[in-house]
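Hi, can you check this record?
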Amino acid sequence: MKNKKPPFEITSAIINYVAEISELIGRLTSSQALSATPTLRRTNRIRTIHASLAIEQNTLTIEQVTAVINGKTVLAPPKDIAEVKNAYEIYDCLDALNPYSTDDLLTAHGIMTRDLIEDSGMFRSRPVGIVDKNGQILHFGTLPQYVPELVEELIGWIKKSDLHMLIKSCVFHYEFELIHPFSDGNGRIGRLWHTLLLSKWNPLFSWLPVESIIHKRQNDYYNAINASNAAGESTVFVEFMLSAIKASLIDAINMSDGMSDENTNKTAHRQNVVVRHLKKNGIIMNSDVRNLFGVSSATANRILADLVKREIIEKCRNGGNWAYILK
């Protein structure tokens, strides 16, 4: 692998996926949904963690994962709960990780597998066979004495290659799983590092739950690995991963559009309620808005300010207080 790219071909399918993904990124970026909505970012982060762990047979539902992250007590195997806490901690540190640092890779593994395996945060020292969810051996990992060097070479190739990040991050994902550098946690770390590489190229990938698509297509995921293993190169896997990234972006855009529609409906509803109140009472104050919608004083101010901006109402004095009337 040294000074050479890992074996794969850039097919017309790969080229088309890169073009389509780039266009979808533009659509999602223009909506600013992921960056502007903390709730959506948190929801997608939880979906990411649940899916990545579920692929590795973690039994917690997405509701239980949410509860664990919120610090609530969950009746579940302690190992599964620890996996969720560890995964949330390392994904929360994503922005601070250097994707081209082997030390950071080992640190990430140490957090992801903390208190779960003896050699957490260390490359494995024994041979290992890779099995799928049915217990079938996919292939045998690299002999342990060659693992550190091969990981360094793979990271070095990613850093120096001028190929599109969408392509080389997928290649990294496959080659990482092929090397299988750790005794456990390789799938979780491989998916984390794939997300990390993409997030350094475009920050929206920090919050895009690609792992959810992989989980839904888990059989296809393993089939793509098997096909690439049989071919001795990662082309099939790269095509699969790009299709998953595309699907994840489409899901995010649809969710963003749905949120926009919901926000539009909420705004229209609030406007109608305020106008009805004004037609009946003549004026409206912050306290009235709080009572009408069950919101805080700050939120009531924002609702009123938005209606002033849209020239539905105007501000006036009512004794010693501010009030609003129809414009």
